[in-house]
Design brief:
- By secondary structure, this protein is mainly α.
- It is built from ten helices and no strands.
- Helix 3 runs antiparallel to helix 8 and helix 5 packs antiparallel against helix 10.
Length: 213
């Protein structure tokens, strides 16, 4: 119940940006299909997830930075800091799931985007966990002011980095084809969860040592 209320808080903070997120999740895949058809809609899906997750996460962090006393009051309530941190990760995962659902619907409407499958979602889960797994502990350690430009860097670099990574997609798929789907996708999912657990542990440790105003 605590996590639900904390998650609801973050949703209310970003409610003005929900329509922008939905528009980005819907428009980025077909746009990238038009600009980079060799990658079908996969590149667009990856970019939409990264953009939406970081855009909403960045806005929540901005509001918390602008109103530091709100965090102090929240920590003075029965909500422990570890729950506050955990809700931020759940918020990112909920955004990821929303992007997956939107892309799944789009593939039914625009067949040229390709088919969505468990392989694509597991791969994107892994990428998302790496991004937030690094970003959130760094933000809790250094603060929003020192990490606020990371969002712009990620957004600008993603269109250049992801195509380079996708050039190795055939190698990765050939490797995974040697394993059973359950072992391959289950292993990647467990690795993603492991990254999140380590990241959450670090974030809780950093946030617990922060002196709130």
């Amino acid at each position: 119940m605590m996590l639900f209320h904390l998650l609801k808080k973050d949703v209310l903070i970003v409610k003005k940006y929900v329509l922008i997120m939905l528009a980005a999740a819907v428009l980025i895949p077909p746009f990238m299909l038009w600009r980079a058809p060799q990658y079908t809609g996969v590149l667009g899906f990856m970019l939409s997830v990264i953009f939406c997750v970081f855009m909403l996460l960045q806005y929540v962090s901005l509001k918390e930075y602008q109103f530091p006393k709100a965090a102090t009051l929240l920590c003075a309530t029965p909500y422990p800091r570890k729950m506050i941190v955990l809700s931020k990760y759940i918020f990112c995962m909920v955004t990821y799931v929303a992007c997956c659902l939107i892309y799944g619907i789009e593939t039914l409407i625009i067949p040229e985007l390709g088919s969505c499958n468990i392989k694509l979602f597991v791969l994107m889960l892994f990428i998302t966990c790496i991004f937030i797994g690094v970003y959130l502990p760094v933000q809790y350690k250094l603060g929003y002011e020192k990490t606020k430009f990371a969002f712009a860097v990620v957004i600008m670099a993603s269109p250049f980095i992801l195509p380079q990574l996708m050039k190795m997609e055939n190698v990765n798929l050939d490797f995974l084809s040697l394993l059973s789907p359950l072992l391959a996708y289950g292993g990647i999912t467990l690795l993603s969860l492991g990254i999140l657990i380590v990241s959450i542990t670090l974030s809780i440790s950093f946030y617990s040592s922060v002196d709130l105003p």
